Every structure is written in C-alpha cells, then in structure tokens.
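Worked problem 6 (solution included).
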Amino acid sequence: MACPTNPLKIDSNSVSTRYAFEVCIGELPGEDGSNFAVDAIGIPEEELSGTSPVFHLTEPNSFGDFGPNFSNTVRRPITDTAQLEKGVRTDLDAAANFQLDLTTDNFERLAPTFFFAGYRRQPQFGRSSQETITGVASNVISGTGIDAIFTTSDLVIVRRFSADEDDVLRTVSATGSGEITVSGTIADATPSATAYVKRVGVETAAGDVDVDASGTSPVLTSTAFDFTTLNVVAGQWIYIGEGTGQLTSFTSAVNNGYARVKSVSANALELDKTQNVMVDEANTAQTIRIFVSDLIRNEPTSDLIVRNTVQVERSLGGAGFEYVKGCFANTLAINLAGQDKVTVDLGFLALDTVYEDNASRKAGTFPVIDTDNEAFNTVSDFARIRLSRKDDFNTALNAFLTEATINVSNSGTAAKALGTLGAFEITRGFFTVGGNITAYFSDIASVQAIRENADVSFDFTLALNNRAWVFDIPLVALGDGRLQVEQDTEIKIPITFDAGRDTELQVTMIACFFPFVPAAATV
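Solution. The predicted structure is:
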C-alpha cells in the first residue's frame, strides 16, 4: 500500500511562529496599498521590504489560548418533545498567547507594544530604507547624513556586518562629508542592506567628569561635556565606566556601575538608584565612559501614547498557515523562578483568525532568526535586583529573593457589534502592573514597610553577552507579608505588590534595553 500524499497527522515540531507589525489593526502593510513610517510608530528597526511586511521568526516554548474560540447559542424551544435544536454561530474570541525564553534581544521589538509607547532610542544610522550605509573603507563608514547623527565623543557598535565586526566597541574620531571615522579596521567592505551603526555611549575628556556625593543624591559634574547630549531623561538607566582599574572608569570602584538618571542639565547629571553607594571623586586623568540605553515606558502624556498591533503567523506543517489578526498586546508576565531560565508570557487579544493553504501564504519577507541563542538565567545573569524604600534606595528590604513574577496588563476588551463575527476593535483599559515576590526573611524591615504602606520601589537588571535589560517599577505598595515558618527550613516572606503612578517620574513602569554594555557590566 502506498503512503498517502497528505499526512494523517501533523507533528507539533513542524510548527513555526512568526509575527509582523500591522499598518492598522487587522491589516498588514501593503494589503491596502499603503505603508507606514517606521520612526512614527517607534519600531526599533526596519519592518518593511517595499510595501510588504517582515515576518519575524520567534521561538515559543509553549502556547496558551491561540487562534479562534467559536461560540454557538443553542435553540431551546418549548415543545412537547423537550428537545434542543441545533445551535447557531453567535461569537468568536481570538487570541495569541505564547511563552518565550528571554534572550538578550528576542523581546526588543515586541516590548514597546505592551507599554503602548515607542522607543526613545539612541541615535543610529541604518535599519531603515531611508538610511543606508553606502560604503566602508578601512575605518570610514559612508552614508548620506551619517555625519549628522554622530559626534566625536560617541561610542558606537556596528551590527549586521560580518560576524567578526558585530559588537566591537568603537570610538568616533571624525565626522563630515557624509562619513564617520571609527577606531579599528572594518574588514567587511560590503555590509548587508540591513547593516547599521548604533550609538551606545560616550567617552568624556580626561579629567572632565567628577562625582559629587555630598548631597541627597550623587551627581556627575562636568566642565566641558554637555550631559544633555546623552539623550537621556529622568528614569532612564545608564552604565558608568568599564571596570575597576580602567582609564575609562572612575578610580573609586563604587562610582562605576548601573545608575538611574534623576535629572539632566548641561553640566550635571543627577542620579538616584545606583549600583553602589557613590563617593566624592575629583577626577584628574580618567576619560570616563558612560553607556546609554534605549528607553521604553508607559508615557505620561496622551500625545506620546502609541498603539502598535501585530499579526501572528503559525505554520501548520503541510496543512497551511494560521493568521491571528489584530493582535493587541494585552498581558505580559516576566517570570523569575529560582535556578531556571527567565521566561516571558505574552498575551495578545485579537480580532479574528484566518487560515490559508501553503499556496496562499501571505506575502512578505521571512528572515532567519537573528536573536541570541542563549537565554538569561536566574543564577548568573542578575547584575542587580533590589526591593527598597524610595527614601533609601541603597538599602534592600530583603537580601535574597527566591522567586518573583511581574504582571503587566493593558486591561483590553474586545469590542463586538451587530453583523460582525469576532471583534471589530480592541478597547484599552487601565495600564496595571503588579506581581509577587518570595524572599528570605532576615529582619522586620520588610514587614514594617508592608504595615506602614511605605513607598517602595523594585528593579532588576539582567546582563549577558554585552547586552542588558533593566526593568524598573518606581512606586509600589506591598501586601501579604505573612511569614512562612516551617520545620527544618528558612523563614520566608511572601510579598505581593501593586504599582501606581510615580509622582516624580509620572510613569508606572520603565524598561531599558542596553544594546551594548562592557564586560564588567555583565558580572
């Protein structure tokens, strides 16, 4: 007997999952002959090839509710036979929920959709059809307008060149005439069309930047360098120095590391959360390097709120493709379990789901996956994790945590209407952030903070392979706190938290992505 042409089953390992950004909810670029401006919606890189969508490959560990859930309403007439009649189709609920391991960059594109915001990005050249690198000669990179993007104090990296070029930290030594000169030879003279140059920090002049730790908050002060050119705002995280003993770092080790910006002026950068307790330092010879992040936050004013929706394609082996349309970023969970990988659960509400056979696959480009293979883990990749009172960021309420979960929700609901199967729109509700933490109990400080309803802040930093994520919840109220006392084990304290708008920063949650941090920042 010959094997059938069509399989009698389809294995889950034949499934692949991709997503593409929509031009408006439920509609891919090109489906109505239109396009969108990448910068206008805050997507961190080119998402179009002409007028076709780019379907990015992703790597789910598992799927939750995915696709359509049809509802029927049964007829129940009153008759002497007491029988139900066949139901009629009355509703459809669509969703796309899946879990990812968090790698250094597989969440970068999707993260802003959950914050209803665009990236506040550091300057870059490339990654869009309007900016293309036109040539490379030794250490000179050419492109129309590239010299207006960077200055001679900038630290940059090049990406999507040959593998040996990517992620090498370079300094800009000269700009002008549509080109920049960088340190080190670039062997790849013909980089790909998607190659780009990214600003990741600055190097200040020798002896120019000092530390003033005499006030309530430490301040970096300068004579010549203008801190407003860092392109950072209050609440954004930076990394100072390249490690103890380096000419590009402060001499006092405690003055280097991760820090959050409190205020910015031309010759003063005030900090509040810092990795260490900083001390006064009058710098005489150090050329301090400051590494900067791309910022995402729920924006405090309505004119900065941006809604991006995606369409998720799931292959069904030889049977065809499933498209979940109008995916609205609704729920996000960041899972920090002990001795495990860091995972994120992504939950999308959607308008509808359609199915296509292999011959009718939607048009677009389908690049190979370009994310890091290695996932963050909860053992060696924490550069910082701290729950502290807002009036004392330097003192942790608990020295060690065993697990934590952060839950973000946009409280979306499907808008239904007569004559429409499924939803015609998704309505956004409150942006809410909460979660739970389990910690080792060591003193009553954490219990007192719960009892007093103290203003508390929670943040953590994950760093790996010269990249880093910082997740920061500036203001939370703590709950629970009932001590767990069991025989032959440590006392633990379970803590719940609910975030609110921070009255200083005017936001509820901040996420900062560092495209590059030095090796010292990943220890």
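Discussion: The CA atoms of residues 82 and 109 lie 56 Å apart.
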